[in-house]
Write a structure and sequence with these properties.
The structure is a single chain. By secondary structure, the chain is an alpha+beta fold. It contains nine helices and nine strands. Strand 3 (50-64) and strand 4 form a beta hairpin. Helix 2 runs antiparallel to helix 3.
Length: 269
């Protein structure tokens, strides 16, 4: 059950900061902000509304039965209503969470995704969390929320998702890869271990994940690397642990997907 909780230092989260307790408010969108200590985890739960979860500070990882999604700075994770999920915080995390009715303008659809947070959208998310849940729809607060919904429809989706196949043996193999990623794993290796022909494997993998094996493997590597970068691990250590021949090869892959060097996501000294 997603509910109130108390940190190790005895500080309790206020009830109105619990999304589960405000999502039935008669408004198309409601927002809350929370502060979490390092490595805090929210156990499996779900919301009636769709939820956009943004980390103003730190990195968040959302897991569902269908895959995993990671949000470094300037990114946020969308989880549709009714989808069971767990959340892991990397480092101390400040979240900005908005819950949106399924038929509201800014609803981002029935699939999990990661979106880019523009400077305007970031400011709107910050402002929304200062607005009381039962805000005046016709007043200034309602206008802020309406603009937030409009801006969400303009947000770009980014490839920070690692969907799992429905087929059980493929899903187990994907989960094992996340636990011990190897960047040089090949289709032929997986086919041999699963007892599948290459053509059957590639068709099934793309059909059930929406990605080629190579693209999925690279995105899985990013999912593993981003939390480690946020925790302060060295780029060289991460690159070698993931099986890359050099930090340069890892950096090239990283920049191709995210547009910046991995060092951008390490904490400031």
């Amino acid at each position: 059950q997603y509910g109130s909780f108390t940190f190790a230092n005895g500080t309790a989260v206020m009830a109105w900061n619990d999304p589960a307790l405000i999502e039935h408010v008669d408004r198309p969108i409601v927002a809350v902000g929370n502060e979490y200590p390092p490595s805090f985890e929210l156990d499996w739960h779900q919301h009636r509304r769709g939820q956009l979860l943004y980390a103003a500070r730190g990195v968040i990882v959302v897991s569902t039965p269908h895959g995993a999604w990671v949000a470094p700075p300037e990114r946020a994770i969308w989880t549709p209503g009714g989808c069971s999920h767990a959340v892991r915080m990397v480092g101390a995390v400040s979240t900005r969470s908005v819950l949106i009715e399924p038929d509201a303008l800014g609803s981002l659809g029935p699939a999990n995704k990661v979106i880019t947070i523009s400077p305007l959208l970031r400011s709107l998310l910050e402002a929304a969390c200062d607005i009381e849940p039962e805000y005046d729809v016709a007043g200034r607060d309602g206008m802020v929320m309406s603009l937030l919904l409009v801006e969400l429809t303009r947000a770009q989706t980014v490839p920070l998702a690692v969907p799992f196949p429905k087929r059980a043996d493929l899903a187990r193999k994907c989960q094992a890869f996340l636990e011990a990623p190897r960047s040089h794993d090949t289709i032929d290796q997986w086919c041999a271990e699963l007892g599948l022909g290459r053509r059957a494997f590639t068709r099934a993998f793309r059909r059930e994940t929406g990605l080629s094996f190579g693209a999925w493997r690279q995105q899985a590597s990013l999912l593993v690397a981003l939390p480690r970068l946020a925790a302060g691990d060295a780029v060289t250590t991460i690159a070698l642990d993931l099986g890359y021949e050099s930090p340069a090869a890892f950096t090239t892959m990283f920049k191709r997907f995210l547009g910046v060097a991995p060092s951008r996501y390490r904490p400031m000294e």
